[in-house]
Design brief:
Radius of gyration of chain A: 17 Å
Strand order of the largest sheet of chain A: 2-1-3-4
Largest interface: A-B, 45 and 45 residues
Order of helices and strands of chain A: EHEHEEHHHHHHH
Structural class of chain A: alpha+beta
Number of domains of chain A: 2
Helix content of chain A: 40-55%
Oligomer: homodimer
Number of strands of chain A: 4
Distance between the termini of chain A: 29 Å
Strand content of chain A: 5-15%
Largest sheet of chain A: 4 strands, mixed
Shape of chain A: globular
């Protein structure tokens, strides 16, 4: 199929796409872009020509470049429908997408590396201020997601129903991020339970940051 | 069809959904949720029971509730495929989604009302600090989008190709937000040109904040 993934081991958006590729059983070539080294390899002109946003992940497939982790996952769903990341009827898919977006739009953009850098540089925040900020948005988002998992999970193993979906693809990397900034996860037992179960599945476990060739 | 939209006139995510409903020619009932009055009507228990995130927009359709503007747009695309918000082949749809997500994930979450409140309250920022922050992320995102419009627009009227797509649905409300915080749009002539053209179309013009029944 000729899939190339531009990735960084610690990027949680890249982590999502690695999970999706693994769930679909799609082999791919990894091209690491180190986000910190040398001003950020993702900001070099060769990569900017592909992706003017200068962000990872990016996927190349038969000469087509796709940026944005959710757009990549939807693209994979179209070119390789099975196993489905968005199973069920339109209403199921809508609810699954909404859970993924609660992470993609309402949590993750706020604890992105470039945002934390801005808070330090422009607003004079130290590591504790920045981590408190990150934990605030994670906890706010997880409070809602905890209820959505209670409502939609069949048995506590997955976010929605009884199989892995796009919601799980987005949840697990966010749990990793939450732990990095020392978020108290005690109020979110269902999220923690789903994350623990997901890590028993090879597609999720193999996508972890520390398993990547560019891990430090 | 029985569509109810929970909305707020100034919410740019609600603005997106109003455009999408108008483009599809779908009639809907508006239920305004005032985001500021009385601690935020979207945080009252009746709405939280529908949407644990306590955010607008939300769409109800035949007993199904869907949150998150992008999940709502994708749902509308499934229940009412024409006219298509995601036309073309899988590669086109991926690029259109990526442009919408560049707004939905990389710009808008950072200049959301609740985020600006946090910056004032916790980091002691005044209006100028908060607007500078908002303008920074808008300009960063628009720099990339300006190039993507150059690459993908057929003739400068739309973000992608020669018809309205999901990318336009997300771009126009962000241009409104950009103006509210006095962003210099001179470096983004293509974005401004697309926005100007979109406002000549009834589906976009009727969705403007000031045209809503709850506008102040």
């Amino acid at each position: 199929m000729g899939l190339t993934l531009y990735t960084y081991w610690r990027s949680s958006a890249s982590f999502r796409v690695r999970i999706a590729l693994n769930l679909k059983g799609l082999a791919y070539e990894s091209v690491p872009k180190h986000l910190l080294r040398d001003g950020g390899e993702q900001r070099k002109s060769d990569y900017l020509a592909l992706n003017p946003q200068g962000l990872v992940p990016g996927l190349e497939h038969d000469g087509v470049f796709v940026g944005q982790s959710l757009a990549i996952c939807e693209y994979l769903e179209e070119i390789q429908p099975e196993p489905r990341l968005l199973p069920g009827a339109a209403a199921d898919r809508a609810r699954i997408r909404a859970m993924a977006l609660a992470v993609a739009c309402d949590i993750h953009p706020l604890n992105n590396l470039r945002v934390l850098f801005y808070l330090r540089r422009e607003f004079g925040q130290d590591e504790e201020g920045v981590n408190r900020w990150a934990r605030h948005w994670i906890a706010t988002g997880f409070e809602a997601l905890e209820q959505l998992v209670a409502r939609h999970s069949a048995d506590g193993r997955f976010c929605y129903g009884s199989q892995p979906t796009l919601a799980d693809v987005f949840l697990l990397p966010q749990v990793f991020n939450a732990r990095r900034v020392h978020t108290d996860l005690a109020p979110f037992p269902r999220i923690v339970g789903v994350a623990e179960h997901l890590l028993t599945l090879p597609a999720f476990a193999a996508a972890r940051p520390e398993m990547q060739p560019d891990a430090e």
